[in-house]
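Notes for week 9. Today we move from apo structures to complexes. The key idea is that a small molecule is not decoration. When we ask for a structure prediction with magnesium ion present, the ligand SMILES becomes part of the input, just like the chain. The input block below holds both the sequence and the ligand string. Read it once before you look at the output, and try to guess where the molecule might sit.
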Amino acid sequence: MKNKLEKKIIIKVTDLFKSFNNNVVLKNINFQLLEGESLAIIGESGSGKSVLLKNIIGLLLPDKGSIEINNVEMVNLPRNLKEKILLDLGITFQHGALFDSLKIWENIIFKVANKEKMNVKQGKQLALSIIKQLGLQPDILDLYPSEISGGMQKRVAIARAICGNPKILLFDEPTSGLDPVTGSLIDKLIKTAVRTVGGSAITITHDMASVCRIADKVLLIDKQTISWSGTPEEMFKSANPKIQEFIKPINSEIFFK
Ligand SMILES: Nc1ncnc2c1ncn2[C@@H]1O[C@H](COP(=O)(O)OP(=O)(O)OP(=O)(O)O)[C@@H](O)[C@H]1O
Ligand SMILES: [Mg+2]
């Protein structure tokens, strides 16, 4: 399936609804992620950003609607087929979720090692090549997640997501809680992953500096639905009152230099 500009549609969400009992979280969600595109999703805390991501990866089941990844309908897909598709995705969760009982290097190569055989030396080498890009030191490779700081755990989770160069990347708040230097390092990595591997990314973020650095397109979730979308440049010109609230504290000239 291709869109007007002949770009392949990687993820297509159509008429998605999700409630928890009487709490309507998402309604009538429609959007596409195209090949080579970097999408940022913004919205107030509690607006349903993480719920949307969890629906896309099948951790939550929508009440209604369709989610296609590379033209395969994910909703109600048998578990073994769903897992096969998810193996090709690089995902980070908002709250870390490293395997406590595995060393850092084992965490990082986990998915790749499930697909191809490698010995300890090769595994550590692969993990090392990735953590270097994230500004982490080699001596953490043999530690366990509980032995490194929260910000380091966050970077290890990103290393695990990008290991094996997956073509689809889904990040939930990858830079929150990190210092600005590390945050901008991670933004560069996301951008590089999209540009050089020909991948596509969805990044949920509160960080408007990140949005300007990484996004081709921004989606705003407000009042349970996508109430605005556009480029970062359009965002700074938008009169939409909710968008205004997000950009008010920011001097856009800093980011578009
Ligand atoms: N498993 C669940 N069961 C019941 N309600 C849930 C569940 N997961 C999320 N919710 C509710 O869905 C709403 C949206 O939550 P979500 O985590 O998607 O917000 P968010 O936009 O990611 O917020 P934040 O920016 O704080 O991460 C909240 O009201 C939350 O309480
Ligand atoms: Mg969230």
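The CA atoms of residues 135 and 182 lie 8 Å apart.
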